[in-house]
């Protein structure tokens, strides 16, 4: 009878397991997901916490029968990366190992001194392996990556061979890297619902057979499009649909409104927006940007109560601008990519507006010396400008933008001299992953706030000056925001620039040696310099052939970029400002002369990390043996996050509660179980009833719970933790039951 009941339970649970493995796309317990490889063979789902001491839980689903590896890297390389490797061993037990990349180059990743990754479950079928684990955002372990809102390069790898031990992990057969944001809400959430809604309308903006040049890597392509005479809509989402095979060439797109200006003369005449010799004339009339997409960006879905107005009364024409990057000068590349807007005719309660802060794209204003590991430029939007606002501006999403040299960007908000915590920053910026950031809580800008956008560059690989320009090899420093409620009909902005005449003097030129040209420094080729041979050459020619830097020159230029007077172009509309209440700045309706950097009386200081004590699974701080470095689950208890002497791994014994909750059925004592095995039964009702029948020994004492291991491959005796002593062990069959940061059920 007992064997028949066991068979019945095994059949029911195995059926449930097969259904779970088939439903790999349904992850109600997770808030984020990403496909890491181009073929969809490495999927990762995760659920972050809300602070550094919270857990972040990951589930990796990989098309392999062997080991899988996931790492967190600052630059996409193994060197110094935080790596976790997991597999299901030959006996059917899941194993996990906390490791780190070698100090130099690629190679076998050694095990961490402290094992901070907690294995929650592992299972596999004939095609896939699924491993679930968790760790704290900040483990206070120098060998681990601190998980923040910065861009994280997820490095991944796998192999179809099962390791015989933690010392014998065969080299990967597949590997790659993908940048993502682990903490902030994903911009693509809710897209499937919008696409499936029959009331949703779409409007496609398409380029047609754009040919990329082979004599230069950068092409900005512009086209004027006339809008149909539809009634007013709200944009509720957008999607960039890149022509298959052109992913490496399409860098970013901007959609501008031209207002009520008649642009019909440009219809059907797409052309280069700007290059070294010309500017596409419509760019001067179309400056109100409606949408931005950049490389690495995914679908963008507005919050359910918000929409961006489109097809307004005076909105007849739009300008579509695309930045192409043909780095290898590949011949024969043509592109017909599409930017799709998703809209609704029913207005949403909250309308959004757009706001930009940054440095003007000018070659003598934005100058970055070569061979600098860290060089920072600054854009200021002072209180003299923001005081024009009559109500707060609630920023719910932002996009930071530089070109190839950018490594760190941030928005600083200063309120009456006190710096607030920066919610928009990225100390690991990736040029190839420029995704908008959704904030869990909007950034509220008040009238009178000072704003600073800082862009830090690494030019150590460059031998010549990098200057502000539109080419991929040139640089920019911009921050795009979207906010609510909408203030005006057009995009507002705040751009600041240092005195370019003084910049050129710092670089060694005298006033009579250069001419900024009729455009005042905006057009590159209109600027000329008298070089050391008394020849008139372009400014760029002088940068590349004559300019020689000294350490003193670089130091002076860096100080000038930060602290010198700047001219601020204030594009905010609103109330008049009494300048006597401000810092003696000179101004008119649009231009503000800022006498120096924005004063900060109390800079924001990041709080020190809190290293909490935790139990064996709550903290996941298993001591890894230097030779083994792998565990089924963590097996130490009540230790602080600091290095402890290595302890050898102990063999699994059913009466030692060493972290492996499953023992062979033959070892289950039917008459009862040790006290450390006691605990509430959290399995399905049928399992509870079966346990009651099987363990009806006539004695009033707990017995072993019969269940199925997370491998779904063999019937086992499940060793439950004691709820009083081991409350941190809140999981059954590898599924978390308690979390330190519970999420609402509908997340």
Describe this structure in words.
By secondary structure, the chain is mostly beta strands. The chain folds into 3 domains: 2-183 and 612-736, Cellobiose dehydrogenase, cytochrome domain (Immunoglobulin-like), CATH 2.60.40; 191-351, Copper type II, ascorbate-dependent monooxygenase, N-terminal domain (Jelly Rolls), CATH 2.60.120; 361-478 and 492-507 and 547-594, Jelly Rolls. The strands form 12 sheets. It has an 8-stranded mixed sheet. Strands 12, 15, 19, 20, 23 and 24 form a 6-stranded mixed sheet that branches. The protein has a 5-stranded antiparallel sheet with strand order 1-2-3-9-8, with no helix packed on it. Helix 1 runs antiparallel to helix 7 (685-694). Residues 1-26, 581-588, 613-628 and 633-747 have low confidence and may be disordered. This is DOMON domain-containing protein. Pfam families: Cu2_monoox_C (PF03712), Cu2_monooxygen (PF01082), DOMON (PF03351). It is found in: Membrane.
